[in-house]
Amino acid sequence: MLNIMGLGLRGTKSLTLEEADALKESDLVYFEIYTSISPGNTVDSLSSLTGGMIRLADRNLIETDSEIINEAKNKIVTLLVTGDALSATTHNELRMEAQKAGVEVRIFENASIITAFISKTGLFNYKFGNIVSMPFIYENFFPVSVYDRIYINYSNNMHTLLLLDLKDGKTMGIQDALGILKRMEDSRKKGLIEPERIVIAGIAIGSENESIIYGNLDKVMEYNPPGSPASIIIPATINDNEREFLEAFARKIN
Amino acid sequence: MLNIMGLGLRGTKSLTLEEADALKESDLVYFEIYTSISPGNTVDSLSSLTGGMIRLADRNLIETDSEIINEAKNKIVTLLVTGDALSATTHNELRMEAQKAGVEVRIFENASIITAFISKTGLFNYKFGNIVSMPFIYENFFPVSVYDRIYINYSNNMHTLLLLDLKDGKTMGIQDALGILKRMEDSRKKGLIEPERIVIAGIAIGSENESIIYGNLDKVMEYNPPGSPASIIIPATINDNEREFLEAFARKIN
Predict the structure, then answer these.
(1) Does A64 touch chain B (CB under 8 A)?
(2) Interface subset of A 84-123, CB within 8 angstroms of B
(3) Where on this chain does S-adenosyl-L-methionine bind (chains A, B) (predicted)?
(4) Does A169 score more than 80 pLDDT?
(5) Which end of chain A has fewer CB atoms at under 10 Å, N or C?
(6) Residues B26/B72, Cβ–Cβ less than 8 Å
(7) Cβ-count burial A146-162 (b if 16+ within 10 Å, e if not)
(8) Touching check for B206 and chain A: CB below 8 Å?
(9) Domain B2-108, what architecture?
């Protein structure tokens, strides 16, 4: 039996009652540290909740997946994933491979940064287009397609949620992401990433240190809100109702 | 103090550990029954968890909002919302009005049908465009804009999640929703809603009776999967990886 379990956004505090029960029944618990990060004390807190050892599952363990699946053939194995259980493709890969190996898989959904951040800003979730991911940039890797996808949303009057990449347990910061977008603007020159463009940044959504700020792109970039994980919304037209919410629920950077 | 608390998709079993604690400390608990529905035993189960009376909050109570806000001025009041806490605009309205009245508001995010359904099908969440809602249709109310919005997504190669309306505690069924889309096709004639188009239906996602099926539109419509609440995905191009997932995780209707 393999449980793929969303941990939500608050560490063990956001485990559901049903998840906490399933966790206590588990013979073996893996904590996935490859696609996202959790509050700092999560491993200790999980250990004391389960009364046992927590194994950390990195990219190698998740993507080769034979160890987890082999264990799950005759044990109750739980893989804990920050946020929702299946938001990253890699967890659906593991789920499919487990099924092929004859292992029963149970999915426990939980809160995701996607809905939590969007709804907390007050922007309407049905006005969002494609979610876009911003990867780390290297000398020979500068995917301007990121800009193009935000632009398609914008042209269709859809807001864009921009998720920032994670590497070695650190997520990209707001300033870095906006800096890359400005370089993409220099390349495409469509007027999407201008100094006066309103952008919204969400940091550590769901945690005690949560902050949501907004303001002109250059102001937000200068302010460079600290903390992680962070995400950005590039809005299209913000209607009156959304504007009133945003002003009530987020802090303006001038 | 006003807690706006997502209940997730499984009734009280999907309350988080932190939510369960906050619920026990509450002086007054409202259960919102206007924007979505929960498993049938949820009210009884909530009553026994809180050891007290649960008040049902209907449209009138949520939208006039003075009763809840007045109570929250000197009591700990919790509003429980199925799914995520803030997915419906009306809960952000309440949150804003409470803030204006000087009431401290705490938000507890939880799983949403939006991410849970999409991720369980195996379709990639970053390939979805605008979420579209299908309202009940009346003689003088036939909003073909629903079709137009799905079409914009489709033209940009984005999948559409179609959420079905709720009225008097009942959600629209799959057959009714697809029937309305077919009538909209007759009006717009853009070839979007054709008999051979693949559609995916999700019923009671997260619950014990969950089912996800897919197939040609006419086959799914004929089969008319029972149960509620239900949602539909109208996919654009499904790539090879998504197709492999869909075949593994959903049941094909022939």
Answers:
(1) no
(2) 84-87, 89, 92, 95-96, 99-100, 107, 109-112, 114-116, 119-120, 122
(3) 9, 84, 112-113, 164
(4) no
(5) C
(6) no
(7) bbebbbbbbebebbbbb
(8) yes
(9) 3-Layer(aba) Sandwich (3.40)
Segment of A29-38, A140-149, B163-172 carrying the highest mean pLDDT? A140-149
Which residues from chain A sit within 8 angstroms of residue B95, using beta carbons? 248-249
pLDDT for the residue A118: 97
CATH architecture of B113-252: 2-Layer Sandwich (3.30)
Query: Is A20 in Cβ contact with B248 (below 8 Å)?
Result: no
pLDDT value of position A60: 83
Mean pLDDT of the residues in chain A: 94
Mean pLDDT of A52-56: 86
Q: What is the pLDDT of residue B100?
A: 96
B201: helix, strand or coil: strand
**Neighbouring residues of B228: CB distance < 8 A, sequence distance ≥ 6:** B37, B170, B171, B173, B203, B204
Q: How far is B131 from chain A (nearest CA, A)?
A: 5
Q: Is the pLDDT of residue B24 over 80?
A: yes
- Inform me whether the pLDDT recorded for B65 exceeds 70: no
**Among A125, A108, A146, which Cα is nearest to A26's?**
A108
Complex ipTM over 0.90: yes
Residues in binding site of A for S-adenosyl-L-methionine: 9, 84, 112-113, 164
Residue A203 pairs in a beta bridge with A211, A230
User: Quick one: average pLDDT of B225-234?
Assistant: 92
Q: Which residues contact B220 (CB under 8 A, 6 or more apart)?
A: B174, B178, B199, B201, B213, B214, B253
Dump pLDDT digits (tens) for A9-18. Answer: 999 999 999 9
Neighbours of B99 (CB within 10 A): 15
The domains of chain A are located at: 2-108, 113-252
